[in-house]
Amino acid sequence: VLHTTRPLHTTQQSLAPVPPLPEKGGEVRHGVIPEEFFQFLYPKTGVTGPYMLGTGLLLYFLSKEIYVVNHETAAAACILSVIVYAIKKFGPNVAAFADKLNEEKMASALAMKNEAIESLQKAIDEEKKEQWRVEGRTYLFDAKRNNIAMLLETNYRERLLMVYNEVKKRLDYQVAMQTLKRQKEQEHMIQWVEKNVVQSITPQQQKESIAKCILDLKALSKSAHAAV
Amino acid sequence: GPLWERPLLEVRLGELHTWISTCSFSPQGLLGAVQRAWSSYCAKYIHVKQGGPAGISMLLAGYCLLSYGWNYQHFSKNSLGSPS
């Protein structure tokens, strides 16, 4: 359960990144005496001061028997010489081995860090590409909108054309009806006129017209003969 | 900095008794002092990238001296100057 009322990360201090270890430790001379002691005595006594102090103290301890020489002194001397010889001979090898171990650890940690950074970078790139794709979606919607508008337009035009055709058909029908009616009226009138004219022609007029036609024909044939 | 916050090596000889009067001798104070001394020793000689034999050799030498000091009575009994 996370208590959200507790403030997190309020101080400046943070545990990471840890500052790196110093390269070399404090200087120590002869393995037991730190260098600060020699520096402390240097202004007053020069370089040989601490050594004179050491010799004097050693002789004082030996003479006053504050340090007692017994069998353990010989054992200590042998052990010390063996230790010094071992350090001088195998020191560098052990140091190189330890350095190699350290190097391997550092390399693996660094590899992990690099891998993590790479994977995160790849994730960032993918995300950016997705964002770019989202931008393109507006174009997709525009194209779809255009398509739909076009469909609507064509549908509207089709229907307009249909309406026009239907109206034209109806108007043509009306026109055809009117022409038919007029034609029928004309025909009827012509027939009626002809009938009346034929009825009005009496036999007397028929004979007179035939005789006139014969006379005309004779006159025409005479003129035709003359022309020939 | 003020006197009671300076480490021992930076205190001058004349101010030593005032410095001793300011440091706390309660168990927590002594424990804190021991812990600080140990951590500063570790940080200086042990927790480094390339430490030599100096780190442990000084500890062993100190141990030798301490043990000699504790057993001085036993040593002096076998010495030449002891009345036997």
Automatic annotation (TrEMBL), chain A:
The entry sums up its family as follows:
Belongs to the eukaryotic ATPase B chain family.
Q: Which UniProt keywords apply?
A: CF(0), Hydrogen ion transport, Ion transport, Membrane, Mitochondrion, Mitochondrion inner membrane, Transport
> What is annotated about its quaternary structure and interactions?
F-type ATPases have 2 components, CF(1) - the catalytic core - and CF(0) - the membrane proton channel. CF(1) and CF(0) have multiple subunits.
Q: Could you tell me the gene encoding this protein?
A: Atp5f1
Q: Name one Pfam family in it.
A: Mt_ATP-synt_B
Q: Give the protein name, as stated in the record.
A: ATP synthase subunit b
The subcellular location is: Mitochondrion; Mitochondrion inner membrane
Describe the task this protein carries out.
Subunit b, of the mitochondrial membrane ATP synthase complex (F(1)F(0) ATP synthase or Complex V) that produces ATP from ADP in the presence of a proton gradient across the membrane which is generated by electron transport complexes of the respiratory chain. ATP synthase complex consist of a soluble F(1) head domain - the catalytic core - and a membrane F(1) domain - the membrane proton channel. These two domains are linked by a central stalk rotating inside the F(1) region and a stationary peripheral stalk.
UniProtKB/TrEMBL annotation, chain B:
GO MF entry, a single one: proton-transporting ATP synthase activity, rotational mechanism
Q: Where in the cell is it found?
A: Mitochondrion membrane
Q: Which Pfam families match?
A: WRW
**Residue ranges of coiled coil:** none
Keyword entries, A-Z: ATP synthesis, CF(0), Hydrogen ion transport, Ion transport, Membrane, Mitochondrion, Transport
Q: Does this UniProt record's set of keywords contain Glycoprotein?
A: no
Gene Ontology CC: one annotated term: mitochondrial membrane
Q: Name one GO biological process term.
A: proton motive force-driven mitochondrial ATP synthesis
Please verify whether the record's keywords include Lipid biosynthesis: no
Assign the protein's first listed, main location to one coarse class: mitochondrion
What family name appears in the similarity comment? Belongs to the ATPase F chain family.
What is the protein's name according to its record?
Answer: ATPK synthase
What organism does the UniProt record list as the source?
A: Zosterops hypoxanthus
Upper classification of the source organism reads:
Eukaryota, Metazoa, Chordata, Craniata, Vertebrata
